[in-house]
Amino acid sequence: MRKDRRLRRLVVDERTTYLWNFRQRKGADGVWRDIVTLHRGGRRIRFVFRPGGPGSGRYVSEGHPWFQGWAMDGQGAGINLREPGVVRALLDEADRRGLLLPGERELDGWELFAAVAEAVEVRCAAAATPGVPPGSPPGP
């Protein structure tokens, strides 16, 4: 059985490697959070996904083991926070927005959700189509 607390490696390029993990945590307020944490050179970045209220369109696993790691919106988009490709997309989007500052940071994962879900969907569609060069958008 896999240990959820272990740190996994995410290699960005030949000089940049992050360690990361996923966990669920129940806060002092009694609300469950799905958290992806990245570590590198004294920097710790947490992407926190909290459930929304009724009708908010923000759904996380809230401690349920059968949906563990899934963050979904009410529009049918979802990301699996335990997949390295999703973690890389979170990192890339945070970097693009200039959110990767030195020190410890906690970011609201929902602010990045739409861009990450789209990036992962495009990447999966291109990978599923034989003969398509990497980075190509999905077909009609």
Give the strand content.
25-35%
Cα-atom Rg, whole angstroms? 16 Å
Largest sheet: 5 strands, mixed
- Low-pLDDT regions: none
Give the overall silhouette: globular
How are helices and strands ordered from N to C? EEEEEEEHEH
Q: How are the strands of the biggest sheet laid out side by side?
A: 1-2-3-4-8
What fraction, in percent, of the residue positions are helical?
A: 10-25%
Number of domains: 1
Number of helices: 2
User: What is the rounded distance between the termini?
Assistant: 41 Å
Structural class determined from secondary elements: alpha+beta
Quick check: average pLDDT?
83
Word description of this protein:
The protein is of the alpha+beta class. It has one domain. It is built from 2 helices and 8 strands; from the N terminus they run βββββββαβα. It has helices at about 85-95, 110-130, and strands at about 10-15, 15-25, 30-40, 45-50, 60, 70-75, 80, 105-110. The strands form 2 sheets. A 5-stranded mixed beta sheet has the order 1-2-3-4-8. Strand 6 (about 70-75) and strand 7 form a beta hairpin. The longest helix is centred in the last third of the chain and has 19 residues, at about 110-130.
Short description:
This protein has helices at residues 84-96, 110-128, and strands at residues 8-13, 16-26, 32-40, 43-49, 58-59, 70-73, 78-80, 104-108. It has 140 residues and is of the alpha+beta class. It has a five-stranded mixed beta sheet. It has a three-stranded antiparallel beta sheet with strand order 5-6-7, covered by helices on one side.
